[in-house]
Design a protein that fits this description.
The structure is a single chain. This protein is 46% helix and 11% strand. It is α/β, with parallel strands linked by helices. The protein has a single domain, classed as Aldolase class I (TIM Barrel, Alpha-Beta Barrel), CATH 3.20.20. Strands 1-8-7-6-5-4-3-2 form an eight-stranded parallel sheet. The N and C termini lie far apart (42 Å).
Length: 298
């Protein structure tokens, strides 16, 4: 996988659990088949939507293995390998490569605040030691570290780093990153509510929670916008916002994604404790959004 392959719609899929909070492999295969059949361009496993902090090492490896097997080479699989230490990220990345992932995506370390040079060395060491290409994932709200545009431009020069997932909610920073580095790496948004705007300023695609729920609509939005059918693309983006508003930061995007899929018949289970479930009011809002998009029937 290289920079030019990293464009389009990449669902950040959920990790299904059964009633005992154990990995539900059959449900994971069903979700994989669903998004592939609806035209996505790659799949991201074991990210935030996939509840990576709630998974142990073997579960993370197994999730990626199942998705690789289920995709059967139809799309590349990009494995989330975020962890607090550089050593653990490298180990998780080796696991992902061994089970067939095409690339890895990882955030900066979290919990401890470290200086910028330590962040650079973290990604540099990963890129140097990774057997597969690396996508940098900037998510300051959850990691406590914002990778500045100048830092991202510096990382873009590192061999084996091919892309960026930018989940910094300042669209201006995305524009500046594009100015500095779009000729070196693939720059994608990670914010569903900014997808149309991000494409308009030059982003190559999206790592998307929404695309796990409505992959066809997200692919249609990408196709409309990149084909120059902007009125159609903008109208679709606005329609999707009624769902996207549940997939940002409040009430948290994992439970809404799982509950939406459950309503659609995928039986992906609930979030692992202590993550909270949705309230009845929130569940009704998700239900209405799915009805409006034609994803379920009353």
């Amino acid at each position: 996988m290289n920079k030019n392959d990293l464009k389009g719609v990449f669902p950040a899929i959920v990790t299904p659990f059964d009633d005992d909070e154990q990995l539900d492999e059959s449900a994971l295969r069903a979700v994989t088949e669903y998004v592939v059949d609806n035209g996505v361009h790659a799949i991201m496993t074991t990210g935030g939507t996939g509840e990576f902090p709630q998974l142990n090492r073997e579960e993370r490896r197994r999730v990626t293995q199942i998705v690789v097997e289920s995709a059967e080479g139809r799309v590349p699989i990009i494995a989330g390998t975020a962890a607090c230490s550089t050593r653990e990220v490298i180990e998780l990345t080796e696991d992902a490569a061994e089970v067939g992932a095409s690339a890895t995506i990882t955030t900066p370390p979290f919990y401890f605040v470290v200086p910028d040079e330590s962040l650079y060395q973290h990604f540099f060491e990963l890129a140097k030691n990774s057997p597969i290409p690396v996508v940098v994932y900037n998510n300051p709200l959850y990691t406590g570290h914002n990778l500045t545009p100048s830092m991202i431009a510096r990382l873009a020069e590192v061999e084996n780093i091919i892309g960026l997932k930018q989940s910094q909610d300042d669209l201006g920073q995305l524009v500046e990153v594009l100015r500095l580095a779009e000729d070196k790496i693939s720059i994608c948004t990670g914010i569903d509510s900014q997808f149309y705007a991000a494409l308009c300023v030059g982003a190559a695609g999206i790592f998307s929670t929404a695309a796990t729920i409505c992959p066809r609509q997200m692919v249609d939005l990408y196709d409309c916008t990149t084909d120059g059918r902007h009125a159609e693309g903008l109208a679709l983006h606005k329609r999707l916002q009624n769902l996207n508003r549940f997939l940002e930061y409040d009430p948290g995007y994992v439970a809404p994604a799982k509950d939406a899929l459950n309503m659609m018949g995928f039986r992906v289970g609930k979030v692992r404790r202590p993550l909270p479930n949705l309230t009845e009011v929130e569940l009704e809002g998700v239900h209405m959004a799915l009805l409006e998009l034609g994803l379920i029937r009353d």
